[in-house]
Amino acid sequence: MGKSKALYAFSFLALYFSFCTITPTSSTSLQDDFINCLHENTNVDFPLLETLFSPERNVSDYKEVLESTAHNLRYVTESMPKPGFIFKPVHESHVQASVICSNQLGFHHRVRSGGHDYEGLSFVSLMETPFILIDLSKLRQINVDIEDNSAWVQSGATIGELYYRIAEKSKINGFPAGLCTTVGIGGHIIGGGDGTLLRKYGLAADNVLDAVIVNADGKLLNRAAMGEDLFWAIRGGGGGTFGVILAWKVKLVPVPETLTMFTVTKTLEQDPETKILSKWQRIADKLVEELFLRVMFRVAGDKTLTLEYKGQFLGEKGTLMEVMKKYFPELGLTQEDYIEVSWIESVLANAGFPTDSPLEVLLDPKLSPYVKVYFKGKSDFATEPIPPFGLKGMFKKLVEENTSSMFMIPYGGIMAKIPESETPFAHRKGTILKIHYATISTSEDGISLNKRTKWIREMYTYMTPYVSSNPRLAYVNYRDLDLGANTKDSKANFIKAQTWGAQYFKNNFNRLVKIKTKVDPENFFRHEQSIPSLPFSKRLSSW
Ligand SMILES: Cc1cc2nc3c(=O)[nH]c(=O)nc-3n(C[C@H](O)[C@H](O)[C@H](O)COP(=O)(O)OP(=O)(O)OC[C@H]3O[C@@H](n4cnc5c(N)ncnc54)[C@H](O)[C@@H]3O)c2cc1C
To answer: Complex ipTM, two decimals?
Structure first.
């Protein structure tokens, strides 16, 4: 069958897959083409039962694998396009072969590590069907080298597994990455990766020493081979654009044996004039770098809110008590609020586990308190405190929707000292806090989806005067297709992307486009918000 005919048939069949119908057999020939091509491009065996999943082979296995790490359930509903088949490489050369074969056979593909993409971009293609899924979840090896202060970690591992493997070997080493321990290393680091050690050590991406990537030609490149431009781009430029990262070499950071945590909850009645929250906004980014003090806004059943102030300090209780007494007595902490923990216990607590849980819970994503949900998220960065009347309106808006969720985290500390152009992640000096909005539900129907989507967009509009502007900034790891999306083969993608690109990356977007154009001129690695390659007509003038 010719390539275009094959793709036509594949496309037709993908439509069937999207409704979870068992497809006629002709699509198996496309899988066979892929398998034959893989055989030609790797010497390492790949048992089909463990590596290839399609509705024709076994519809329930296919469904199970597809949904296994898909965190946002909005993207596995029946109406969502589904991959024609899923390939799970068990060896690095299989990833190389998958890239070569997708390219040769003209299959659009998606790459998934931990599956936590907010818009499901790692396993759903809205802009281009048919497509296949390359799922890296079997490539999850971690080697921690305490002597060298580093670890090599494959993309399919979760950040919880990395934390566990570090803690297994040391009580005084950690790694600065996100709070939710089921997030995948692959997609997390490539978009930045912030967590409770952010003010002391920066992002996960700020602590990368080396990486191994498969490029659009299927070549395996380490830092030296990929060059400093590409190595720059993958430390914050977002997933699915520059190649498939197989593994990262990360720098471990020192942590004390004893950390101190606290949670203080305030109702609106306890802070009617928003004095405490206003003070938090003024000081949280200026406190000692060892202290990370965030605020979670929770809608209580009776249409009111509670504000949870959650602190984590790299040091003992006595020192933190002094800091809080001096800088934030309004929070009213008592002796009993302070809890001393080890770093790995703080990891458990931040992920929602009791601190006395066996550490092995970090190895099994099914045990995570972060259950899969239907959600839509958005983000903002603020450079100035939101005034009290703005906060009051924000509270009013939050309680309108009982699935709403919101938090603010402070920046400052080392984040303000790292130059904006050091990595693609440009939210550095001047950023006082990051805001995360979401609507989260364990069930969904069309009506509630519309209502919730409307709510979060209104919330975002409401916040406009109080957050960054020109451009209004956003965090690429909280993908938000409301900001704009590429469409298939559109020459206008490059123009449109300048808007959302500046929101995610400020001036770094232009450098990302140049690097993308150089390393992947054909735009092989693409999705709804991948960095576009420059159209051919623009290339000469811009180089
Ligand atoms: C519940 C939850 C909690 C979160 N908490 C935090 C947090 O505390 N801090 C924070 O910074 N972020 C957080 N995030 C956001 C998270 O960092 C991003 O969604 C991240 O992209 C997820 O990585 P992943 O591998 O799990 O995702 P995936 O869905 O697998 O991938 C995300 C994107 O990266 C691409 N990609 C995946 N693997 C690779 C690879 N190996 N090479 C190249 N591209 C790849 C995908 O194609 C996709 O475009 C959270 C997300 C969720 C859902």
So the answer is: 0.99
